[in-house]
Design a protein that fits this description.
- By secondary structure, the protein is of the alpha/beta class.
- The protein is built from 17 helices and 17 strands.
- Helix 4 packs parallel to helix 9 and helix 5 packs parallel to helix 6.
Length: 451
């Protein structure tokens, strides 16, 4: 038996003792590189080059921006020649929506939509506990109660099997989130909504061009919202949009987002104030950037999908790593986030925080993801506020607290790991390096866990 064979057998036996034998099998014959120290312990990082920066800029971005600057009409105008209006037309055509309204942010898109749906004090809105805080903030700003539907850990989405049991006579709206660009289970959500005569507001803020059964998300519910914040796949620094196939609803959104002004028969701003509202208008600068950025979105989305699919094939071979599962109806994932679950039992007990630290040292940016929103202090702060005490009785608040438990989501928040959309704009070699960094950490997990 050769010295190298003896060495491989020794390593395999040692790893098997820590529950890691499968990682040796997935890597195949261990090379001299396999014995490299993790970068966190002084070894050479798997990757030393940065991933693609964001945003990507072309000459067209600069031309559009300068055109707005020199034209001196920086505030959105009603004319169809405005960049904001042109973007609305382009964005709804890309998605197959009937109507589109651009807003100042994804948050204001959601807030305007809840206003249009007449969600208010005494109402309940079904929400996931695993999402960005804006999804919850807008419900609280309407003085309604966000009722958390526990998470399906395999998909990171609102668990469709738990929606119906969360409904009460006060439920007015279901607010699913297409988290990370993967579609929530819209078949079940729409079925439950129809059966209980509930409205559906899609939070598609992270899901540009994502699809459910070949229909773009954001177009399936009563209203759908997008964000164009700086990290998003379609980016104007800040910005948002609302889709709807219902004229009356989009007109209510238009009125609310423009200080309550009415809308005339041609869709232009009227002269009367017909409802309460706020200023959530998008600017011409944002519209100009979005027109240029949107021209590259399809090609970038295809690159993300190709790389994410390849990366999933690599990571599925590593025990203890479970890429987020997509529902069968999700025919296109936007991959704003690449999400996975980490099981420390297959990494010699290495805590997730230490795993993330080791990944970063190998040159792989990563994050632990969201915290449980139902446990954040803002919930209790709202319930104890003067407004909520006036709206809801102590008994109602007490019952709400009893319902506010999401044990599956609590577990997900302990095991989630994220990679970012810009990482998926690189090459197949970049994906290989991500997978190699994970394997390298697994091979050295025992040493990393005990230093």
């Amino acid at each position: 038996m050769s010295q190298e064979s003896t060495r491989r057998d020794f390593l395999s036996a040692g790893l098997a003792g820590m529950g890691l034998a499968a990682s040796v099998h997935s890597v195949g014959v261990l090379s001299s590189r396999s014995a490299d120290k993790p970068a966190l312990l002084g070894g050479t990082p798997v990757r030393t080059q940065p991933f693609p920066s964001w945003p990507l800029i072309s000459d067209q971005d600069e031309k559009n921006w300068e055109a707005v600057l020199r034209h001196k009409e920086w505030c959105r105008q009603g004319a169809h020649s405005s960049y904001a209006t042109r973007f609305e037309e382009a964005w709804k055509d890309m998605a197959g929506a009937k109507y589109c309204l651009a807003t100042s942010s994804g948050t204001t898109a959601l807030f305007s939509s809840l206003s249009a749906l007449d969600v208010g004090p005494g109402d309940e809105v079904l929400v996931p506990p695993y999402t960005f805080v804006a999804t919850i903030n807008v419900v609280l700003l309407r003085h309604a109660l966000p009722v958390f539907v526990d998470t399906d850990r395999e998909t990171f989405q609102m668990d469709p099997a738990k929606i119906e049991t969360a409904i009460t006579p006060q439920t007015r709206c279901i607010l699913p989130v297409h988290l990370g660009g993967s579609a929530a289970n819209m078949d079940k959500i729409l079925e439950v909504a129809r059966n209980h005569k509930l409205q559906v507001l899609e939070d598609a803020c992270q899901a540009h061009l994502a699809e459910w059964r070949h229909q773009k998300v954001g177009t399936l519910g009563d209203l759908g919202c997008f964000s164009f914040q700086a990290s998003k796949n379609l980016n104007s620094g800040e910005g948002g949009a609302i889709f709807s196939n219902h004229k009356a609803l989009i007109e209510r959104c238009m009125s609310f987002h423009n200080n309550g002004r009415g809308v005339d028969a041609n869709g232009y701003v009227g002269t009367r104030y017909v409802m309460n509202g706020s200023n959530h208008r998008i600017t011409e600068f944002q519209g100009a950037l979005l027109m240029a950025q949107a021209s590259r979105l399809e090609a970038q989305s295809q690159t993300r999908t190709e790389n994410a699919t390849y990366l999933t094939e690599q990571l599925k071979k590593i025990q203890g790593i479970a890429p987020a599962r997509m529902y069968a109806g999700c025919t296109r994932n936007a991959y704003h986030l690449y999400m996975l679950r980490y099981d420390k039992d297959h990494f010699g007990g290495l805590p997730r925080a230490r795993f993330l630290e080791a990944l970063k040292a190998e040159g792989i940016p990563c994050s632990e993801g969201y915290t449980p929103l139902n446990r954040e202090p803002l919930i209790e702060a709202s319930l104890k506020s003067r407004a909520y005490k006036k709206i809801y009785t102590e008994q109602e608040i007490s019952k709400y607290r009893e319902r506010n438990h999401c044990p599956e989501n609590d577990e997900l928040c302990k095991e989630a790991v994220w990679f970012f959309q810009t990482m998926l704009l690189g090459s197949k070699q970049d994906m290989d390096q991500i997978a190699e960094a994970v394997r390298k950490i697994q091979r050295n997990a025992g040493e990393l866990a005990h230093m």
